Amino acid sequence: xxxxxxxxxxxxxxxxxxxxxxxxxxxxxxxxxxxxxxxxxxxxxxxxxxxxxxxxxxxxxxxxxxxxxxxxxxxxxxxxxxxxxxxxxxxxxxxxxxxxxxxxxxxxxxxxxxxxxxxxxxxxxxxxxxxxxxxxxxxxxxxxxxxxxxxxxxxxxxxxxxxxxxxxxxxxxxxxxxxxxxxxxxxxxxxxxxxxxxxxxxxxxxxxxxxxxxxxxxxxxxxxxxxxxxxxxxxxxxxxxxxxxxx
Length: 247
Description:
Oligomer: single chain
Structural class: alpha/beta
Helix content: 25-40%
């Protein structure tokens, strides 16, 4: 049986209608590299926790939107036109619930930021304006140019074991980044400028990792990307088998 992995959708205004959507490449990466199928989760708040009983894992994907600063106790909003409060209301509650039940969780870009905020951390709203930090935004050009690898990251812990390397090259398309690390998280990758690039939930009973880059892009194009999704897929399959046996 194939694992079913939930992907929280974003609220988008398309043709003057609010719609729920996410880039197709996240689901395609699950199919191609995790032996799983994706299901989009509408951003309808805490009522969506009911779907967790039907899922084998959660992929918290990237998005152009930013987590609202009041979610981590900050009143000044540096990006007021780049928020998705419906997604915040859905994902932040879902992260805590999934980790509590031992469900595999994988965060990418905004997903890493959501995990940090959900567990009590804070964010740099515009990391490129922080002294000593590089500009981690994607810049201009074609999609392939924007998602091309741009800098190295240094890996430690479980992430280094999964990727089979201590240093890898990654793409970079984010304006926000972790400021204060949440209690219960450990850093597993950093950029040369000190930006936190990956975290792991220490007390999680299952796969609970998040990365700031986009391994879903050309997922089979580098061993570390493929191995990340394969490890997540294996954790979801194991979770599915355990819950089926317990039923």
